[in-house]
Structures
1.
Amino acid sequence: MALADDLIREIDGRREDLIALTQDLLRIPTLNPPGENYRDICDYLQKRLSRSGFDIELIRAHGTPGDSDKYPRWNIVARRDGDRPGECVHFNSHIDVVDVGHGWTKDPFGGELVDGKIYGRGACDMKGGLAASIVAAEAFLAVCPDFAGAIEISGTADEESGGYGGVAYLAGKGYFSPDRVQHVIIPEPLNKDRICLGHRGVWWAELETFGEIAHGSMPFLGDCAVRHMGAVIDEMEQSLFPALAQKRTEMPVVPEGAKQSTLNINSIHGGQSEGDADFTGLPSPCVPDSCRMVIDRRFLLEENIDDVQAEVLEVLKTVEGRRDKFRYDLRELHRVLPTMTEKDAPVVRTVAKAIAETMGREAEYVVSPGTYDQKHIDRIGKLKNCIAYGPGILDLAHKPDEYVGVDDMLDSAKVMGRSLIELLARPCESSLNKGGSHAFA
């Protein structure tokens, strides 16, 4: 149909603009932690989207984890209303990026374009997706100014550290309530022909074992908390890890290894605190009276959060029965229940159709091994019609020399644009097609 053809030509004609936009976003180093330059990137997006007729709100998430006068948690929500009532399509992207790390051969904040790839921290996760959604929306507005409903584009804080200063805060304020927004697309890098329906659950906890301090030359006069923790880890190796490996899910989780339950020992520390980097002395000889371990348990839709906790408590109970003076404290840090949007949900069907039309193949349905901001849209916003779809290769996220392909961004922008046609453009299409047909190519 003519409208879809016009849209594709419009997006192809914006290739250089898409490249420049992505490079500009990458050159704003929005590192989290601690949460740098959030206001700078929001100001940049405000200028860009205001020119396209969007009404802008800049929203600081006061009092959320990490928010401070030095590192304020700023978010942007841009909205463009159509000429008549209809549904709202919301594109949500996080603006923060993780630490650079080591091993880069490109400037992490240079936005260098090499052989059709744009390099930089956050290129695929997920500033390339943000740029693609903006170009898709602007191209749609250019070819269909007479549309129904509304388009929203948000850039939100802190997804990499839980999303509490971003989507969770906005959802609590009603920005993702079903009476305001009906369809949400999160342009995370899941590959351009995949629709991500949701994610596994997560339970983070900190376990501390206790002992008694004594002179290191006479450990029999103390009680070593590290040895107690070693016994816990040994019991996990003997009983818990084998049990988790037997738990399998019907969720289409990728990669294959994530189709089972998993537990990661995220960190462990016992005894004296490490000295400053410039300290060259030796530690004092002490029996450690405390050892702390953070665990990261990922669980499946088929599992119950109470059972997840009970399995860890059973390990501790077993160790307690075997060791004298075994004392511990278990503290929950974070929990997110699994979520998975149904395949017949409107946004899923719409994006799947757009993928087939754009790329000539059927969409693949996946579930993410880790959580992303869909958890807050579902749990707090009470909006189920939400997916992740965007350009980029998931395996490149958080890696050195992270990049996003320009052609992948263009294809994803076309999928997003076609989705807008399907959901919002029927009055526009009917004005072009006097016969009243509503078929879209």
2.
Amino acid sequence: MPTHTTIEVPNFGKVEVPVGLFIDNEWVESSDKKTFSTVNPATGKPFVDFAHATKEDVDTAVKSSRKAFKSTWGNNVPATERAALLFKFADLMERDSAKLGALESLNSGKGVRIARDFDVGDSVAALRYFAGLADKTHGQTLNHFGNEKFVYTLHQPIGVCGQIIPWNYPLMMWAWKVGPALAAGCTVVMKPSELTPMTALVMCDLAKEAGFPAGVINTLPGLGATTGDAISRHMDIDKVAFTGSVITGRRISIAAAESNLKKVTLELGGKSPSLIFDTANVEEAAAWVAMGVWFNSGQDCTASSRVYVQEGIYDKFIAALKVNAEKCAIGQPSDETTSFGPLISQTQRDKVLAYIDSGREEGARVVTGGKKWDKSDGGFWVEPTILAETNIKMKVVQEEIFGPVIVASKFSTEEEAIDLANNTVYGLAASIFTNDARQQTRVSTAIDAGTIWCNQYGILHPSVPFGGYKHSGIGRELGTYGLEAYQQVKAVHQNLTQTM
């Protein structure tokens, strides 16, 4: 199989893209020559075949990354040099933002404007943030032992890191993981989702152009059960970072523990609540919540998928939310005006529709949506959907749908709202809409979630840590916490006067 192929990209023309494995700064076939197929979510038709990395390919990539870590990267390179390469990497991404956005849109179904301006733009910002942070990390001096000894700590890179990223934000999740890992001095063995591997592979050519040494970034497309499992179990990978489902996160934790007890960072699912109190601006709250649940067609771990509204404004809020649902710019990914594209696959679409049916059967009222988009024409769209009058026992309230479905119900008191918000196995994010500043502080403290938005939703920044409570994950990404996740702390004791 060739390592590159030419595809037709809407509004962009013919583009040559990589479909092989990127190991040691070279494009190669998989060791057994096997491939796997992807599908265009907007048409339901076959898209591109990619090389499927085997366990042997994973081993080759790990050896390449280990060699780089011990010679041309890691503690052997000044942090300012790593920073300079990351800044150049970000510049190249920005230069190619139109191409990257078009490819991301085509592969994932996002509106091309969203993919270019937000996904690519935020990825560039993440690389630049971590480039700037690369030489800002430091340890401590512990000089309170009198004249006996002097102790200091070193923050050193963990080593070779396996990174497994999801399909909902293929490029952004790549940047969230590659940026801090390289800034810290780690080397990377990356496995993109088997549904959306293309942009992670395209980034390899830019990494080579930027001047990263061979082995610093190796990228292996493949299935989770084979390539992903081999990464999780490899005895010479020091850490694995994963974003995806709770089920897969558990498997990765088990594999990491059963192999070499490698470090693990997990960013998993969510069922994030939005609490709308009666002092809130209803129109503004409805607009924020709408963006939170219908951005990326609801395929977002932090989606504002549970809404609890104080009873006095419930009907008014649901009416305002319905207006926002019906204003969603649903359309073809190649259209500049589209902000709501198809779901990633037929399986995902059918799963979402089954959840909607279960909500109906259990007594929820469909306010709007609830079915396939009438212009789907083979693609995998589901209309923006509101299920009202839900209750805590319903499947649609308890389980993550990962689609454009919001479930809504009433509450009467602040205490009841907090209990409803926390009645979930997840704890990734939440939002509070109130004009009572004291209430904002009380409720923010009481909700079990890693991110709380007050009078807004969904806005993230590379400098702000992100991660979850409970089943929503282990560890944090972004910010200084995200860099620390790729470092080990070493304590050094220097004897000054002590004798044995």
3.
Amino acid sequence: MNRQSFLKAGHAPTLLAAFLYFDMAFMVWVLLGPLGVQIATDLGLSQAQKGFMVATPLLAGAFLRIVMGVLVDQLKPKAAGIIAQIIVIAALFVAWQHGIRSYAEVLVLAVFLGVAGASFAVALPLASRWYPPEHQGTAMGIAGAGNSGTVLAALFAPSLAMACGWSNVFGLALIPLSIVFVVYLLVAKDAPNCPPPKQFSDYISVLKDRDAWWFMFFYAVTFGGFSGLASSLTIYFNNQYGLDPKMAGFFTAGCVFAGSLVRPIGGNLADRIGGIRTLTAMYALAAVALAIASAGMPTVWLAAAIFVAAMLALGMGNGAVFQLVPQRFRKEIGVMTGLVGMAGGIGGFYLASSLGYSKQVTGSYQNGFLIFAGLAVLALLGLTRVKRRWRTTWGAAVAARI
């Protein structure tokens, strides 16, 4: 597969629009994580409340991805994306103008930020439907690299909050969001081969396929680990190593950047050697890295190195999962993107909330990390169980490597 073949295969402006939309959406989806130290200080939140605050957008985004998956099939991806962006922009504007004065109010905002997380169910089908099977991993990896927006949040939000107050960060976020919204309106196009709208029963029927559940579990581990860490590491570095919010944000940005950067590489590698082989290696690396992190590293630099390794594995795993999904469920890619994305959000919610709960109850983050490392091992065992069946059934009928 060469670059020229890929460029001729799809619609580059739509792929760019999908990436930019995804990027800005992810930036605001995890925004409460990088701002968590300042928000928690001003509102007097406990460790468990901090964990639940940064986890709530992940959970809301998880379930809203189903809603967006339905809208994608009923209205087509571009229209669904327009609706979602308007809701997020309006929510941030209200939060900026009205202010956030209580734990309850920050949770309400967190739910609306979940709409940004649901962008996953829009951006990926918007891009995917333009590309043939042999280019799915690369196309989905590029669009999915929009999760690099989490880097922007970690890099800039704490510094901006220290300079002009954390509530004003919501207003500043409206600037890039509005610019990308205009670009999206101008250049994004729905693919000409969009499938016709499905009946509600069609969505239920997908869940009767055991492969749908396997993909949901696999993504709950890869994306759940990525998003859960992206939302939690600023608070972790602040609590564990005494870093101020700005420096904790810088360390978080470095870790998250690693995971974001390699998502397209994971998709491309899966195109070359197969998604199953790629995922096998990534789950093993993620499990080892998270288990080591659970012990608590003696220095922040060593901890950062371990989290970079974990994020590299999880980020590449994200790309590999979505090299496989379109091969197995091409006709149901809209609803499957929503379902698999929902599972990823639930995984992120679990990790982020359990870290805060573990810290409050035991005084340590160890149990939260160890349990998620165990889930990575279970995913590895599950992949080993299904790989022979996948390769000899639907895998044998597609042009791409699986």
4.
Amino acid sequence: MAPRKPPETKKTLEVPKCPKGKRSRSPQELEQEAKKLFVKGPGSSRRYDSGCLWAGLANLQVLSPYTSIVRALHQHKLGKAAWPMLQQSLQQSFLHSLASYRIFHKAAPFDRRATSLAWHPTHPSTLAVGSKGGDILLWNFNTKDKPTFIKGIGAGGSITGLKFNPLNTNQFFTSSMEGTTRLQDFKGNTLRVFTSSGTCNLWFCSLDVSAGSRVVVTGDNAGQVVLLNMDGKELWNLRLHKKKVTHVALNPCCDWLLATASVDQTVKIWDLRQVRGKSSFLSSLPHRHPVNAACFSPDGARLLTTDQNSEIRVYSASQWDCPLGLISHPHRHFQHLTPIKATWHPRYNLIVVGRYPDPNFKSCTPHELRTIDVFDGSSGNMMCQLYDPEYSGIISLNEFNPVGDTLASVMGYHILIWSQEEAGLRKRETI
């Protein structure tokens, strides 16, 4: 007998609690519990003592006809299911698994807030985190080995960008308020300085690296963008924005395509081969507020932008001038908070972003929780919210590892590692 399809509903499903320490339940059980609890969805005023919030089944506006991944794979093998439908079924299964995500590892190694985060490209349990004081933690949380801690200069040394070297993953690039962009090893040795301002009035705010083109790109607080090759030779240094360049991103599939975000309220798309000055952009995407980030999707076909107030946008490579979707979401800017940046899931069309409740936001309710929100990248619908009452602060940075099964978050001084309950059978670990 074919599996029973869950009933469709247009009403937003209320959010059930996910008690800690219990077995993982089926989607049908979760749906029945949600109906019984009748708790409000995202933005609820109710306080929770659970490890996560789940806004799952009914928020999936287009339900896959396959309730079983095995069945979906079988149908695809027989040629009866298209690849997008199979992907949708896999994504649904992943969303159901988020109900059992908990914090299993945590660290608070810095004396100032964490400011940047990067996963190791080949070790799914290893990440690097930088702080406002210039400290860097290299942490493999699946081993009992002591993490590597690289001491920074303190005040004025904030790590603004962090990337592992794709050509040698025992090295990493950093940009900082110290006024440099450099390559370092795991012992903290500086292997090469790519840019150095020589003054405390000019610093570098972002960086990205391409293995294919073998280039490093970095942006500063004056609107300049610098392109260099891996040997440190400067290819060009141009003022492309009127104000600080908050984010630079190379397209993962077309690494000659560059996106830059700025507090001048624009995101610009560039062809690295044809940059001649500030007017040589391919597209300029105006925003209503300064922009914190612009990230290409893993397939390079879409661009995700996060402003400094309440808007997340998704653009398509087929039509840069017009966003595919606008997501209203509170994540306002605050001087003493690491800027909130939305990111893509590495395998699914999902957007992950921290919530900073705003009383002036249209849907704000009393006692709104500071959750991690997961949106569908196509519909813009809220799919899931993660929350742990022990760590109820504002979570600025969230990024899934390359495998897509573990989430790292930055909340003030804290680094939090979320994983599925079955995958983290050990007790919570703290360093």
